[in-house]
Design a protein that fits this description.
Blueprint (H helix, E strand, L loop, with lengths): L7 H29 L14 H13 L6 H14 L3 E5 L2 H11 L15 E5 L4 H9 L3 E5 L10 H7 L4 E7 L8 H11 L2 E5 L7 E2 L2 E2 L6 E5 L12 E5 L2 H11 L47 H32 L6 E2 L7 E2 L4 E6 L7 H10 L5 E2 L17 E2 L4 H9 E5 L6 H17 L7
Parallel strand pairs: 2-3, 2-4, 3-14, 4-5, 5-8
Antiparallel strand pairs: 1-9, 6-7, 6-11, 8-9, 10-12, 12-15, 13-15
Helix pairs in contact: 1-2, 2-9, 3-9, 4-5, 4-8, 9-12
The structure holds pyridoxal-5'-phosphate.
Length: 450
């Protein structure tokens, strides 16, 4: 009997076929079982994937290329096409994307426009720490402005009043996917010649006047942590239309090097041994010339392989998030007397990261009482991240300027929470949560209008 000699290609196809079968046995069956079981817990977020992500991941692992490679290029291409931008640079997290986006603006490549130590950057204290941390990490000064209740985004008039001769940039997240008033912020930026960094980590696919967030500011960032619109496990992206910013981001991301040859490529920059840099000898290998004090924040090809498969699902994911938000809107409407319900920015269509709710002061119960009740019923809730960041231990003694008394930010810290909108949330799960809400009011005998 002759033994069939298997080639790497035929083995790869067999492994891919088995991987898809494995997905159905390991994960598909679990999804079906969960759908048939009574609901006892509801997560606020989670990765949503099928055999395509698993096959893509295994396919990439079989290359054993590991660093930036064919899947990274594919993922970048899909992301750029989705946003309609020229540059999309994959990184290892949304936090790294924020660090790179702002640090790029300190690059000497920008000449007089570069950010310098001591310059002020306008931001908000109601949000995620790593939107603000790059400001501090770069020796810049965060200027904290208050936010609007129910919309959780910056008060633009207050931002305008906060501008001084030291102000050089605005760095803000679109809170939970709801756009901040990007048009007014861009106008302000134009008027005062400021950089704008759009943190879109929670806002992939949200639009303002039909245009995608992340395409307005000078540079924008995205996160692919599992709670987000798509996932690569850990991962993020920095996007821009500006070739100089893109060059600076790439350099800071890749150890600070000057050369733009991709990993494993030699001499594609066309100037490997011909130029003189700094005080190095003429012709010093460009591969080892460093023009920035950089990091290594690159994404691996296996992460990109998952991301590329997730991009194909993104339009459907966005629709599911919108549907789930609408279901919460309908379900919470009867309790509006007790809660401040979220409002989308006018002219926007958010791909909501979450459904944020603030317990009214006169509700007769606290946020903690309410979320503790839901959590005991297996319903996950989250606070709006850091609440009021300036009251967090890490920020108490950092250099900063605070505008006004951040009273709405304090309300968020004390009384706001959110529920998920992720695509894994089914109508049955939403209905379970709404039954729990009803039971809370019944058990606590809270029936009067506050
Ligand atoms: C608004 C915002 N910015 C940045 C980040 C950081 O992203 P990552 O967890 O990928 O570092 C998050 C994380 O959830 C976020 O919500």
């Amino acid at each position: 009997m002759t033994r069939k000699i298997e080639t790497a290609d035929t083995l790869r196809e067999e492994i891919k076929r088995l991987t898809a079968a494995y997905y159905h046995a390991r994960f598909g069956a679990a999804v079906e079982k969960e759908a048939e079981s009574p609901i006892t817990n509801v997560n606020y977020a989670g990765r949503v994937f099928d055999e395509k992500e698993l096959v893509s991941l295994v396919d990439s692992s079989l290359d054993f290329w590991l660093t930036e490679g064919r899947y990274t290029r594919e993922f970048e291409k899909k992301f750029k096409a989705f946003l309609g931008l020229e540059y999309a640079l994959p990184v290892n997290s949304g936090s790294s994307a924020n660090l790179l986006a702002l640090t790029a603006l300190t690059s000497g490549l920008l000449g007089k426009k570069r950010l310098k130590k001591g310059n002020e950057v306008i931001t908000v204290a109601a949000g995620f720490p790593t939107t603000v941390n790059p400001i501090i990490q770069n020796g810049l000064v965060p200027v904290f402005v208050d936010v609007e209740q129910g919309n959780y985004n910056i008060l633009v008039e207050q931002a305008k009043r906060a501008i001084t001769t030291e102000t050089r940039a605005i760095m803000l997240a679109h809170t939970l996917g709801n756009p901040f008033c990007i048009e007014k912020i861009m106008k302000l930026a134009q008027e005062y010649d400021l950089w704008v960094v759009e943190d879109c980590c929670d806002a992939l696919g949200s639009t303002y006047k039909g245009r995608k967030l992340g395409t307005f500011g000078h540079v924008s960032t995205f996160s692919f942590y599992p709670a987000h619109h798509i996932t690569t496990g850990e991962g993020g992206m920095v996007c821009t239309q500006d070739p100089v910013i893109a060059k600076a981001v790439r350099s800071f991301r890749d150890w600070g090097r000057d050369c733009w040859c991709a990993g494993g490529q030699n001499g594609s920059c066309g100037c490997r041994y011909t130029r003189q840099y700094g005080e190095l000898p003429l012709g010093y290998d460009h591969k080892y010339v460093y023009s920035h004090i950089g990091y290594n924040l690159k994404m691996t090809d296996m992460q990109a392989a998952i991301g590329s498969a997730q991009m194909d699902k993104l339009p459907a994911f966005i629709e599911r998030r919108k549907e789930n938000f609408r279901a919460w809107e309908k379900g919470f409407k009867p309790w509006e007397a007790y809660f401040v319900l979220p409002a989308a920015e006018p002219d926007s269509d958010p791909a909501w990261f979450a459904y944020p709710v603030t317990v009214k002061e006169a509700a007769g119960f606290s946020r903690t009482e309410f979320t503790d009740y839901l959590n005991q019923k297996g319903v996950e809730t989250r606070n709006l991240f850091a609440g009021n960041m300036v009251k967090q231990p890490a920020y108490l003694h950092t250099e900063k300027r605070i505008v006004g008394n951040l009273e709405n930010t304090d309300v968020i810290m004390e009384r706001t929470f959110f529920l998920g909108t992720y695509p894994g949330l089914t109508p049955a799960k939403i209905s379970y949560v709404l039954d729990c809400v009803k039971a809370f009011f019944a058990e606590k005998k809270i029936v009067k209008q506050p």
